[in-house]
Q: What sequence folds into this?
């Protein structure tokens, strides 16, 4: 049984080693949603994630023989870095088993922290099987990412800090994978404010705790790989079921939007799992209007390429970046006329591809594929209408608008 006393003991272990991250007001998000929104910025931990908390508490509990032999952990990235960071500091050999699809930024950082990284399996469950085998064969101690009382107690320190920093919080929204974070926060929060509303958020297809559950078959992918866990822990599940008010699932479009909004409005780079609480808030703002809501921003370890692609997709979704296909006569000066029209109406051309072959149009005509910057969807629609009225039929290509 995880108790608040265990969480307090964990806090003593972490004092002066793990960052007590700030709880900050998010004015833009508050205005956007109608709730008073505060962000617990665990992305500011030294390893970029809350996992540094539980990892330290678990490693601190090792016996001397266990420390000498070493530890093994399975992780999609953040637990790996937490274990590697503290194991190096404590002089404990660490082996980390990570799924084969883990973002490069997480594998490289884990190796840079001194751990031996082994890629095995397509899912965390498959990586766990390998980690358990290594533990048996080599006598290593398995440091579980969530189903461990020391880890849960360490993560619970976040809930204690949030309510100490803002006693007015009446709702906490927390990302959920295996459940260690939510279970620990639930214990701490209920001990300090029994009537507080606790909501967990999972990724669609990886949501066994959601109501109703949503667990996909096969090897689905999600932006929130940090919470892509189909089977919560044996220790965490009963805590969540008894203490948490609701667990909701959010889709990929909502997760993408939340990452983008965090970057644009709060200037915080976050990973998909960390954006899940905001995705839940933005998906149902009416549920939280007038409430004081704390969002646990669990980590910021997002792959640079993924972030770049996501932000560009956001520009497309907002109508600020578009690809147009324009039909023109294949005659001198026509391209200049089209360019002048776009420029005169405030568009900025980024790329032009002049298509004469392989098109279902008359031989005296051609098509232009133009990548153009605009201010918003209305501006884009106006530009398409202007081009059409000038005798250049235009259609939008590859829009992400309305994608679910």
A:
């Amino acid at each position: 049984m995880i108790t608040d006393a265990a969480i307090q003991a964990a806090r003593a272990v972490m004092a002066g080693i793990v960052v007590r991250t700030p709880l900050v007001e998010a004015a833009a998000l508050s205005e956007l949603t109608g709730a008073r929104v505060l962000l617990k910025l665990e992305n500011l931990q030294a390893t970029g994630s809350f996992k540094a908390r539980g990892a330290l508490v678990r490693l601190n509990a090792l016996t001397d023989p266990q420390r000498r032999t070493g530890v093994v952990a399975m992780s999609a990235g953040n637990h790996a870095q937490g274990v590697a960071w503290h194991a190096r500091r404590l002089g404990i050999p660490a082996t980390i088993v990570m799924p084969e699809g883990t973002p490069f930024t997480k594998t490289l950082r884990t190796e840079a922290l001194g751990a031996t990284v082994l890629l095995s399996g397509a899912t965390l469950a498959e990586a766990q099987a390998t980690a358990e085998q290594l533990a048996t064969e080599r006598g290593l101690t398995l440091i579980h990412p969530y189903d461990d009382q020391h880890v849960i107690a360490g993560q619970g320190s976040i809930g204690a800090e949030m309510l100490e920093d803002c006693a007015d919080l009446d709702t906490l929204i927390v990302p959920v994978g295996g459940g260690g974070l939510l279970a620990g926060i639930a214990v701490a929060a209920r001990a300090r404010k029994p009537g507080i509303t606790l909501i967990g958020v999972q990724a669609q297809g990886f949501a066994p705790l959601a109501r109703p559950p949503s667990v996909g078959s096969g090897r689905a992918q999600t932006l929130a790989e940090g919470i892509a866990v189909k089977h919560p822990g044996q220790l965490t599940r009963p805590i969540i079921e008894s203490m948490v008010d609701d667990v909701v699932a959010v889709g990929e479009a909502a997760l993408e939007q939340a990452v983008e909004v965090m970057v644009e409005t709060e200037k915080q780079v976050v990973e998909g799992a960390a954006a899940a609480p905001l995705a839940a808030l933005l998906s149902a703002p009416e549920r939280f209007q007038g409430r004081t809501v704390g969002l646990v921003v669990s980590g910021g370890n997002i792959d640079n390429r993924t972030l770049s692609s996501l932000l560009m997709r956001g520009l497309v979704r907002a109508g600020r970046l578009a690809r147009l296909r324009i039909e023109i006569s294949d005659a001198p000066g026509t391209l200049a006329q089209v360019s002048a029209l776009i420029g005169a109406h405030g568009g900025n051309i980024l790329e032009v591809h002049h298509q004469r072959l392989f098109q279902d149009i008359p031989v005296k005509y051609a098509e232009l594929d133009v990548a153009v910057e605009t201010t918003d969807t209305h501006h884009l629609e106006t530009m398409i209408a202007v081009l059409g009225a000038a005798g250049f039929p235009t259609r939008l290509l590859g829009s992400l608008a309305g994608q679910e």
